[in-house]
Amino acid sequence: MERIGVPHRHVVLASRDRLEDAFHVVYLSLVTSRQEGGPKAVLESMATGVPLVTTRVGQAPELVEDGHNGLLADVDDVEGLAAAVLRVHGDPELAASLRSAGRATAEAHADERLDGRWDELLSGFVRKDSTRED
Predict the structure, then answer these.
(1) Residue pair 54/70 in contact by the 8 Å Cβ criterion
(2) What angle do CA 44, 47, 52 make, to 5 degrees?
(3) Exposure pattern of 42-59 as b/e (b: 16+ CB <10 Å)?
(4) Could you tell me the end-to-end alpha-carbon distance of the chain, in angstroms, rounded to an integer?
(5) Could you read off the pLDDT of 77-127 as tens digits, one per residue?
């Protein structure tokens, strides 16, 4: 990064609880993946209220409503990604809207919220050990 003039600093946090603090210094999250199963960074950005620009990869198109809770661009569409970043940068109201709607999306997809749905899905497929206490 220094070679191309982009300042950076690597910090190892003492605990995962401090991760949210790190996101609050980020103006925008840019996820430029070409191939992903997740990407987990999409929900992490949304959960911390960082406006999101991401490629249409993995689960991103299922989670991100373009213009509502994030901005989407096609894979390898550098101009589209750059335009989306400039759009967020130039429109504080859009940035605020993406923050709010992103948090709501992340909350709706939190692991705790999905526990009941997983139980329902796996009921009958997985036998519970009746001798084990959870």
Answers:
(1) yes
(2) 70
(3) bbbbbbbbbbbbbbebbe
(4) 48
(5) 999 999 999 999 999 999 999 999 999 999 888 776 666 766 777 676 766
What tokens were used for 97?
A: 């809207």
Are 88 and 102 in contact, with CB atoms under 8 Å apart? no
pLDDT tens per residue across span 30-66 = 999 999 877 788 998 998 889 999 999 999 999 999 9
Reduced 3-state DSSP string for the chain: CHHHCCCCCCCCCCCHHHHHHHHCCCCCEEECCCCCCCCHHHHHHHHHCCCEEEECCCCHHHHCCECCCEEEECCCCHHHHHHHHHHHHHCHHHHHHHHHHHHHHHHHCCHHHHHHHHHHHHECCECCCCCCCC
